[in-house]
Amino acid sequence: MMSTTPIIPHLIFRCRIVGGVSSEPPPTGGGRGLTTTPPSQARPLISLPSVPGINTNTSDVIVIGAGIVGLAAAHALLLAGNSVRIVEQSEPGIGQSTRTGGGIRLAHGSEMNVRLTQLSLPTWLNFEEQFGIDPHYQETGHLFLSTEDTGGLTTQAGLLESLGVHCDVLSKGEISQRWPTLDSMDFTAGNYCKTGGYLDQHRVIKGFAQTIQAGGAHLELRTRVEGILRDGDKVTGVRTSEGSFTSGTVVNAAGPHAGVISALAGLEIPFVSRRHELLILEQTARVPEGIPWLIDTDHQVHMRPDGSGRALVGGFLGHDDPDDPDDYDPALSERWSTAVREQASQSFHLSRPDSPVLRGWAGLYPGTVDYLPVLEQSTPGLVTAAGFSGTGLMHAPVVAQIVADLIREGSTSVLDITALRSRRFDNEQLVVDSTGF
């Protein structure tokens, strides 16, 4: 049985980092930001008309949400021989899946998240072979840095090694010797995990969407779920803005709106969305290539090279407050932009506080109160796969397989997911892992 003991307290409460993004801006944006696209000019990531893969309003499975988790689940369900209908209020990938980044990381603060990444990694490494699109995966590795709590780094390294993930615990001198351009940093120690990096999440979304549509999935786009259909205690479908659809099972993969869907089904699950921001510094920042993804766990800021001297910068800077998914501002805020550039300059000594911003944006981490997802059969006919706190892309392949198993067998042998059941929120003790991308 997987341990439910909270681990790495320092990283739990001090470090929140996000995944990589491509050098392209997100396809959506808007508002008053420095570089994001105004809402009136927003474009769908890909244009996929709904096609008649299903000739009636009935299917084996309805998936609510066409983000990365919903699309991956639909793919796994099609492979298992199910007819699938996806209900999406907008367009595939136009929500949070392309705003939280493309990070792939084995270095986590909980056994569960490490296992989920280990089981998903083969899909990302072989994505082009399976889906016909190169995801542009770049392996940078991750270097977690600290002065205030080096014991937390040692604990994390021990966890990773116990799970078969190699992690080097490095002194300041060893960091400088391995990466001379980092010599001026003032951290006492660092954890370096070589396996991990980022991919282009836009290409991943496109690969999944095109593959499942070619496989016969029916996409109900620009369609809002307004109610849950029942036959006694069993969920039997959804009522939407475009009519009602019935199915044997409904999958709640609605991202930041998973709580709304749960409430429509009569469930109380403490989903919460937290705002995050990212920016890319112009090439005049001259951030060197060949260094790993840098994470300052003491001050909650991170940086990685983005090519030609550019750099991706992000971090919570001590703030990861809940936000309303229907009312948050997706624009980069000037206050955060100023603060994060100042902190990145102090932490890594690779850029200046006034380094020009090429572009930036804000997004949400659809999560839970303990930062771990809910993955379960919540009630007869309803499977929930939501609340990943930014790791949805990273873990989508194995989550999709687990969803298919739950629908087919009522359980899964892929991984013990007992710790991800929503009933855990009824207890006082929770596994907390807030280091997710």
Count of individual beta strands = 19
- Determine the fraction of residues in helical runs and give it as a percent range: 25-40%
CATH architecture: 3-Layer(bba) Sandwich
The 3D shape can be described as globular
CATH topology: FAD/NAD(P)-binding domain
The end-to-end span amounts to 25 Å
* Low-pLDDT sequence parts: 1-52
Give the secondary structure arrangement, pairings included.
Elements: H1 9-14, E1 58-64, H2 68-79, E2 84-87, E3 103-105, H3 111-125, H4 127-131, E4 138-139, E5 142-146, H5 150-162, E6 168-171, H6 172-178, E7 189-193, E8 196-198, H7 201-214, E9 218-220, E10 225-231, E11 234-240, E12 243-252, H8 258-264, E13 271-281, E14 293-296, E15 301-307, E16 310-314, H9 334-348, E17 357-368, E18 374-379, E19 382-386, H10 392-409
Parallel strand pairs: 1-2, 1-12, 2-9, 5-14, 12-19
Antiparallel strand pairs: 3-8, 4-8, 5-7, 6-7, 10-11, 11-12, 13-16, 13-17, 14-15, 15-16, 18-19
Helix pairs in contact: 2-7, 2-10, 3-10
